[in-house]
Fold this protein.
Amino acid sequence: MIIIRDLVEPTRTIDAAMFDLTVERLWIEFGCRTSRHRVESVLRGCLADLAGSPVGAMPELGERLARQRLSQDSTNIGVPLSSDEMAPVEVPAELGELGEDSTFHREPQAAA
């Protein structure tokens, strides 16, 4: 059994100012396709995935990986799901009748 007397706080891999600047750059680039919150979340995940990389390289590596993931997300938007991924849609009974005759007739109005 290993006893750890002093717990060591994890060291930051990227300082808060650098994190905010990176989020800002990525949000400017991908802001029309995603939210700022999503950019922050992706960057945090990327930094966590890169744990163990040299600390000095983390800002650049994190930004590059986040850019790659965000660009993959944005290219997947609008891609139709395959038929096995589509959820069935329930149509209310009263709407089912519209499928039989979808043309609408306008009744002539009486002159007032």
About this structure: The longest helix spans residues 58-76. Residues 9 and 105 are 74 Å apart (CA to CA).
